[in-house]
């Protein structure tokens, strides 16, 4: 055989420097990608449960969880809420329902006040939309909103009890100021939101005019309560907002913005001495 036509491979020491640099760059890029994909990105997700590098690789490859967890897949996070809002929840109730609700509400007065106006760091319920009260009580009852006292109280309520309580609180006079309107000088987040950060204006859902079905009236709510709830939504501690709407908004809010919004709504409390009867 004529060896003149046999291709030869140059020794590695004789290969072009650029080729060696390309291989080194590719190896470096691969290493950085693995670190970002399997170490850094998972670590910044609040709902990520670290199970080691091997588990991360298996998840990325689509391997069934039971193969690398000893046959038991990790428990899925509970859903934020299973309540489906229906217009029927907002229909007026008869006097009997309101009366039964008033009796049941005797267990609620220590925190929510004798007439639904709290003197502690609990939400005001006087005149609250009935579907809001129904949803929150059902979420407490089924563990989708966490509070030791409220969960214990809601656990013993039937669905009829919950509807009666909602009817009673909705029937109470609204001992509060007029609803927020676009004519006021409002904080920016309340009036126009922050579109570039995917924050809708508060008034578009919580306004007395543009109230979105199922969202609470928050005028006059205790300031510390509003701050606590916004922070809970921001951290993901509270998860019972449908489709994660409030978590999406609050996640982008700064501490200063949370304080500003809470202070604005809290200042709209009823004048001193004015209570529902």
UniProtKB/TrEMBL annotation:
Matches recorded under Pfam families: Cytochrom_C (PF00034)
Keyword line: Electron transport, Heme, Iron, Membrane, Metal-binding, Transmembrane, Transmembrane helix, Transport
InterPro entries named among the record's database cross-references: Cyt_c-like_dom (IPR009056), Cyt_c-like_dom_sf (IPR036909), Cytochrome_c_Oxidase_Subunit (IPR050597)
SUPFAM superfamilies: Cytochrome c (SSF46626)
Domain Cytochrome c: 96-173, 188-269
Regions crossing the membrane: 21-41
Protein's recorded name: Cytochrome c4
Taxonomic source organism: Caldimonas aquatica
């Amino acid at each position: 055989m004529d060896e003149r036509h046999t291709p030869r491979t140059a020794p590695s020491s004789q290969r072009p420097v650029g080729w060696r640099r390309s291989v080194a760059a590719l190896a470096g890029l691969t290493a950085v990608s693995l670190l970002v994909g399997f170490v850094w990105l998972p670590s910044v997700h609040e709902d990520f449960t670290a199970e080691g590098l091997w588990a991360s690789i298996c998840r990325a490859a689509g391997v069934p969880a039971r193969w690398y967890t000893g046959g038991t897949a990790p428990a899925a996070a509970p859903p934020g809420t299973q309540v489906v809002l229906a217009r029927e929840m907002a229909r007026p109730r008869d006097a009997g329902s309101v009366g039964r609700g008033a009796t049941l509400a005797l267990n609620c007065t220590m925190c929510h006040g004798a007439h639904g106006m709290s003197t502690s760091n609990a939400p005001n319920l006087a005149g609250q939309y009935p579907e809001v009260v129904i949803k929150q009580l059902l979420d407490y009852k089924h563990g989708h909103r966490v509070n030791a006292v409220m969960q214990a109280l809601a656990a013993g309520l039937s669905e009829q009890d919950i509807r009666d309580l909602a009817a009673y609180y909705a029937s109470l006079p609204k001992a509060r100021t007029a609803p927020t309107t676009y004519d006021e000088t409002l904080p920016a987040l309340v009036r126009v939101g922050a579109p570039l950060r995917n924050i809708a204006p508060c008034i578009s859902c919580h306004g007395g005019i543009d109230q979105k079905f199922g969202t609470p009236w928050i005028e006059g709510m205790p300031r510390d309560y509003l701050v606590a709830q916004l922070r809970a939504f921001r951290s993901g501690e509270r998860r019972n907002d449908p489709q994660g709407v409030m978590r999406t908004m609050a996640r982008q809010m700064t501490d200063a913005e949370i304080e500003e919004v809470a202070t604005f709504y809290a200042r709209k409390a009823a004048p001193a001495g004015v209570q529902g009867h």
